[in-house]
């Protein structure tokens, strides 16, 4: 089965590495924020309770070059629609990149009409459309001449971690936090410090990874309504998966009482009171003794005072300490006086950011 998975743009290679680890699949970049790979129904089940870097998984229905809207309609109508979709409400999201004489909405409209026509011809039933809250969500991608149509298997995004009961002013997605940890080559044996931890997303994701805990135990995936998939089998597999025991050394530091209290709420919700230490410390002053330092550096709205001084004094703590690897997310990479071994440029909400990887 041909599958797509969405992830944080610019870090597709990190998602591909996780997919290889979990399923053995060799994923390739389909387009920004999306990777393509081959997998089985069992892989779909496993990814929905073990994947940490993925947002949404989709099964490909059509993947072919097209010349225009007529081809989009024809290739969609030619697929065995009644075999792949249930009799339920559906909606189409269109995404178009390149030079075309039509819009993304036109792509979605032609796909939707083709699905309606093909399903009615096969079954005599007209599928109802619901663009706001459909039971089945279709993604139609047109990148230049390449048309890909896929059905969403996930539903609510996998990045919505249930432990996030207290949000920071500048929240970090759990999927992105995990990808920062992978770039740091974090393992359960490492001493990990996040010196500007905020609500502790990075330390909690480290604990989830170290113990192989399910990141979305509350998920009711969209594939349970689709032909070929068995919701009960998925739920049995997920329920049988247990955390492993791991003696970890994970510390979340922050100099603001408000965020330390927030971090404690999230730590308790995740069930990691024994795994994650939360301490008061100023990143400009506190010494660092860690294998990995992974953090989301403050920027504009998150900090008052001189950012350059903050970044400079933090960098001194890194180089003066016994830090082996540093991974930092920042919107101001030029302010960090370290020569990175890697730099990954990513979108961060509506602004541009960089992930800096430094090794001693």
UniProtKB/TrEMBL annotation:
Molecular-function GO terms, alphabetical: RNA binding; rRNA (guanine-N2-)-methyltransferase activity; rRNA (guanine-N7-)-methyltransferase activity; tRNA (guanine(6)-N2)-methyltransferase activity
Tagged with keyword RNA-binding: yes
Classification via SMART domains: THUMP (SM00981)
Keywords annotated in UniProt: Methyltransferase, RNA-binding, Transferase
InterPro entries with a match to the protein in the record: RlmKL-like_Mtase, RlmL_1st, SAM-dependent_MTases_sf, THUMP_dom
Enzyme Commission number, as recorded: 2.1.1.256
Pfam short name (any one): THUMP
Gene3D superfamilies in the record: 3.30.2130.30, Vaccinia Virus protein VP39
Any one GO biological process: tRNA processing
Every THUMP domain range: 42-153
Name under which the protein is recorded: tRNA (Guanine(6)-N(2))-dimethyltransferase
Species in which this protein is naturally found: Natronomonas pharaonis (strain ATCC 35678 / DSM 2160 / CIP 103997 / JCM 8858 / NBRC 14720 / NCIMB 2260 / Gabara)
């Amino acid at each position: 089965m041909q599958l797509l998975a969405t992830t944080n743009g610019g870090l597709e290679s990190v998602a591909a590495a996780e997919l290889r680890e979990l399923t053995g699949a060799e994923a390739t970049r389909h387009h920004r924020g999306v990777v393509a790979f081959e997998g089985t129904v069992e892989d779909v089940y496993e990814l929905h309770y073990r994947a940490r870097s993925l947002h949404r998984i989709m099964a490909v229905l059509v993947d072919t070059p097209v010349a225009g809207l007529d081809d989009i309609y024809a290739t969609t109508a030619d697929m065995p629609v009644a075999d792949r979709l249930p009799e339920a409400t559906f909606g189409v999201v269109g995404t178009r990149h390149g030079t075309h004489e039509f819009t993304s909405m036109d792509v979605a409209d032609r796909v939707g009409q083709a699905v309606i026509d093909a399903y009615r011809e096969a079954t005599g039933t007209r599928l109802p459309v619901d663009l706001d809250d459909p039971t089945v969500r279709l993604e139609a991608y047109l990148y230049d001449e390449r048309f890909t149509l896929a059905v969403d298997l996930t539903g609510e995004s996998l990045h919505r971690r249930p432990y996030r009961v207290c949000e920071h002013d500048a929240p970090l997605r759990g999927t992105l936090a995990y990808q920062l940890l992978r770039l740091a080559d974090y393992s359960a044996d490492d001493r990990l410090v996040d010196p500007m931890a905020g609500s502790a997303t990075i330390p909690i994701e480290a604990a989830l990874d170290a113990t192989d805990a399910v990141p979305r135990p509350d998920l009711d995936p969209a594939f349970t309504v689709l032909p070929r998939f068995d919701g009960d089998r998925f739920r049995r597999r997920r329920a049988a998966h247990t955390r492993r025991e791991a003696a970890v050394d994970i510390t979340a530091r922050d100099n603001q009482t408000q965020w330390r209290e927030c971090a404690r709420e999230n730590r308790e919700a995740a069930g990691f009171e024994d795994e994650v230490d939360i301490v008061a410390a100023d990143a400009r002053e506190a010494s660092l003794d860690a294998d990995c330092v992974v953090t989301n550096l403050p920027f504009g709205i998150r900090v008052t005072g001189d950012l350059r001084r903050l970044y400079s004094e933090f960098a001194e703590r890194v180089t003066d300490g016994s830090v082996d690897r540093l991974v930092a997310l920042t919107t101001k990479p030029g302010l960090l006086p370290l020569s990175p071994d890697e730099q990954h440029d990513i979108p961060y909400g509506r602004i541009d950011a960089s992930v800096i990887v430094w090794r001693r």
